[in-house]
């Protein structure tokens, strides 16, 4: 679904660009529905609850925005921007899901990773994202800065999670690897789009954004649909291998020991 691909009809250009944007948006909608259906059938929706909660939110949001657009177009602009801003924030749940799954075999470390992910998100939000809104006197520059900085923040957190997984040699598995790959594609494209909007006249290139934003979401949801089409075997603790020359059993033992010690501290 992505940050903006499933947000319904937004202020748009006329002609072929308008039609193209709507067609691409409906492709995102159909793929999102298929992804939810396959999640229910395969049981993946129970393994990745936060991820599928986000997908369902976007799916319902798409329907809601189009209903408002056709029923009350005067209310639509305000409803759209509220949905737009909330969606940017809701997308951070994917990062929490990834953090949970990276350390799935170790409950205490998983909880610690969730807290760290949330703390980093809030900290970057306060010192990096919030000023973009407060320092701007016009809505369009404020929204562009907010969207760009939010995407950069997600990229930073995602890079940290990638590093943690690689540092411990964690075997992510096909499903989690697909979530991370699709989200990486979405974040990278959104950064490029928002940076272009800030560098150039956003009004002049708005027609391109009308179909580029949903196109980014199509690529993302397509990757998710392929990698989460069915439940793949989840890597066991023994699948953890080092990146610095130690054998996998030593790494697994070290993480297990740390998990036990952390559990004792948290239960005191």
Shape: globular
Q: Helical region count?
A: 10
What is the CATH topology classification name? Rhopdopsin 7-helix transmembrane proteins
Structurally, the number of domains stands at 1
Strands, total number: 0
Structural class: mainly alpha
- Tell me what portion of residues adopts beta-strand conformation: under 5%
* Termini Cα gap: 42 Å
CATH architecture type: Up-down Bundle
Average predicted local confidence, pLDDT: 75
Low-confidence blocks of residues? 2-11, 237-248
Helix content: over 70%
What profile does the largest beta sheet have?
none
Which features characterize this protein?
268 residues, mainly alpha, Rhopdopsin 7-helix transmembrane proteins, disordered N terminus
Short summary:
The chain is mostly helical and 268 residues long. The chain has 10 helices and no strands.
Write the layout of secondary structure elements.
Layout: H1 16-42, H2 44-47, H3 49-71, H4 76-90, H5 92-102, H6 107-134, H7 139-167, H8 173-199, H9 206-227, H10 248-266
Task: Please provide a written account of the structure.
This protein is an all-alpha fold. It has a single domain (16-236), classed as Up-down Bundle (Rhopdopsin 7-helix transmembrane proteins), CATH 1.20.1070. It is built from 10 helices and no strands. It has helices spanning 16-42, 44-47, 49-71, 76-90, 92-102, 107-134, 139-167, 173-199, 206-227, 248-266. α3 (49-71) runs antiparallel to α4 and α3 runs antiparallel to α5 (92-102). The longest helix is centred in the middle third of the chain and has 29 residues, at 139-167.
């Amino acid at each position: 679904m992505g940050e903006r691909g499933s947000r319904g009809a937004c202020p748009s250009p006329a002609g072929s660009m308008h039609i193209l944007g709507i067609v691409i948006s409906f492709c995102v909608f159909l793929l999102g529905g298929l992804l939810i259906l396959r999640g229910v059938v395969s049981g993946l929706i129970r393994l990745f609850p936060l991820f599928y909660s986000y997908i369902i939110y976007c799916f319902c949001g798409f329907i809601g925005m189009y209903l408002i657009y056709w029923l009350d177009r005067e209310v639509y602009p305000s409803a759209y921007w509220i949905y737009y801003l909330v969606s940017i924030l809701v997308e951070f749940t994917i990062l929490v899901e990834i953090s949970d799954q990276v350390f799935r075999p170790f409950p205490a470390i998983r909880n610690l990773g969730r807290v760290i992910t949330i703390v980093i998100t809030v900290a970057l939000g306060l010192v990096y994202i919030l000023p973009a809104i407060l320092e701007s006197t016009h809505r369009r520059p404020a929204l562009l800065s907010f969207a760009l900085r939010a995407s950069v923040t997600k990229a930073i957190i995602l890079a940290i999670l990638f590093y943690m997984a690689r540092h411990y040699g964690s075997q992510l598995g096909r499903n989690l690897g697909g979530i991370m790959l699709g989200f990486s594609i979405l974040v990278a494209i959104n950064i490029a789009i928002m940076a272009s909007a800030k560098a150039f006249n956003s009004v002049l290139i708005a027609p391109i954004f009308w179909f580029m934003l949903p196109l980014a979401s199509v690529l993302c949801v397509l990757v998710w649909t392929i990698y989460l089409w069915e439940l793949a075997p989840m890597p066991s603790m023994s699948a953890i291998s080092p990146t610095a020359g130690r054998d996998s059993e030593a790494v697994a033992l070290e993480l297990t020991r740390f998990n036990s010690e952390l559990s004792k501290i948290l239960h005191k």
